[in-house]
Every structure is written in C-alpha cells, then in structure tokens.
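Summarise what follows for lecture notes:
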Amino acid sequence: MSTGELLNIEPLELKFPFELKKQISCSLQLSNKTENHVAFKVKTTNPKKYCVRPNTGIVLPRSTCDIIVTMQAQKEAPPDMQCKDKFLLQSAEAGPGTTPKDITPEMFNKEAGRVVEECKLRVIYVSPPLPPSPVAEGSEEGSSPRVSLTENGNLNGSEVTRAFVEAHDKSSEVRALISKLTEEKATAIQGSNKLRQELELLTRNSNKSRGGVSFVFVIIVGLLGIVLGYDSPVIVQGAPQVFKMENPFQSVGPGNAVEVNEVKNGTLVRLVLPGVGENGIKVWTENNTVFFAGEGEIEWEGDDCRRKYGGSLEFHPEEYRADGVKAEMKNGILRLLVPNAEAKEKKEGK
C-alpha cells in the first residue's frame, strides 16, 4: 500500500495471471484520506496494450474508488515472463463539488505551483495455476494412485491420457469462469463509480437551483441480480423523476422501474418488482427512512432461484412523515404514499 498525503493506493503491483490470447483484468483501489475532493489521473508507458477504467476521476472525501486495468489479449509471451510496462497515478486536491467533467490536464501540472502526488505502479506477470495431477479412479486418500497394467505388464496409456485430459478440461473451465466473473465484477464496479459521480453532480446542481421542486431526497433501490447477486443501485433525486426500464413487448402504460411524483398531501413512489406477490414484501420505517425488502414467488416447478429486492427511501423530516407511509403491493408493483409533514402543509396552505 502506498500512503501519500491525499490517497492510499492498493496494491502497488498490478499482477496479471498471464495467458496467451486472453484478456485479463486486475483491480486497484484508491482511498481518500482527506475531507476534500481529490482528482486522479492514470498514465501508462504502453497505452495500446492496456485499458484503464476510469483513467481519470474524483474520489469523494473519506471514500474509495475502484479502478479496473485490463490487459489486451497477447499473441506471444515475453522472455522470462518479465514485463517492463509501468503505470503512473497522479493525484491533486480539487475544489468542492468538482466532477470528472471538470478535470483538466492543468490540474496535474506541477509548474503551475500545484501540489501533485505521484505513485509508480509495476506490472508483474504471474504464471496461471497448473492443472491438478490426474488421479486414477479407485485410489484412496493418502495412498499412491493405482496405474492400470495391460496383460503384458505395460502401462495402460489410454486411461492415463484420458484422466489427464479430463482434469485439464475441468481446470480450463474453472479459469474461464473466473475470468468471466472478473470481467463482470469490473463492469459492476465501473457502474457503481459512474452512479456515485452522477449523484455528486446531481447534488451539486440541486444546491445551485432551489426553485421548482420544493424538496430533495434520494432513493437507492438495491436490485439483487438473480444470477450473480451483484448490487445494481438505481439513484433518483428530486421529483417528479423516473428511471427508464424499457420493455420491448409493452405497448402502452407506465414502463419505468422507479417513478416519483408529488401528489396532493404527499409524494407517491412507484416501484416495479416483477414476481413479488401481495404478501411477498415487507415495509418498515426508521429515522424518517422507508425500508422495503421482499422476494418473488417460484415461477415454475423445479425453479429454486427467486428474484430478491431491497432498498431504502430517505425523506427530509421537515418535509415528510415517513412513519405515516401507506404501502400497497399489487400486480408486481409496490406503491408507497408518504404524507407531507405538518410544517409543509402549513407553508403550502399560506
């Protein structure tokens, strides 16, 4: 771990399990140690060989940011598995409310009198794990594997070869699965970073404009994937707002995953939760925050994987009474009606 005045960087060595003709990824985490926004930029001596996402960005105060470095598929291995490629990570303090769109090359220019921290990262190739040694069928734990003999006392080569091939195939499947999960995790991390930056931009714009909508709240809906289980947060700010989820088979009617609308005496939140029955959802409140969790029904016989949902809606206590929420689950749609606070009713009554 590198410990500077602005960021902690881990790890300092980018390790790639090298395999020919395969795209390989590894991750890097930045931790902001300060109470200020920190801008960063990643450079490499071989930009055509690597893809860095994000290569520039903002790390919010006391928060972290994950970077995914992907090495393009290589046609040949380097001599002695040694790599001379290097990365340089630059960081500099940024002003309050700075977003990735505000980053310029001048922010990392030392000649302008700015304090710019730099950290060099090495690239290391790691040999992939070797396939396990084939064990002949019928061998016992702790004993040597038995080898088949032909009638003339020679080794039965076909059985040994078949066992080795089967073991190698299984090892290849495991490596392919790990590589696929790594890529999907990288995509999920990129999405999370993008949403965090968009939320910061929304907050910044909201502070500039107080007119129009009389309240600001944030809804974070954690939609749990039914296959891999990655969190995929949906962030909505202000009202009315919608989150698009197009259904190619739907011709008319509301088609959004999340809708927030201000109605008489309160706010109506509409959440689309396919597969959840009328009794399949639980709603409760704490500290003027509405929480919900539930799971869908089994859709067909033999199916043991249900859709799962969960999230929270935080409301400003001077604007809304979350403890008075009215919830209705019907036809796969959760409707939450949150009443206005007494202070807001009096204000609007004037």
User: Anything to note?
Assistant: The two ends are 59 Å apart (CA to CA). Residues 2-128 form a domain with the Immunoglobulin-like fold (CATH 2.60.40.10). The chain has a mean pLDDT of 75. The longest strand covers residues 116-126.
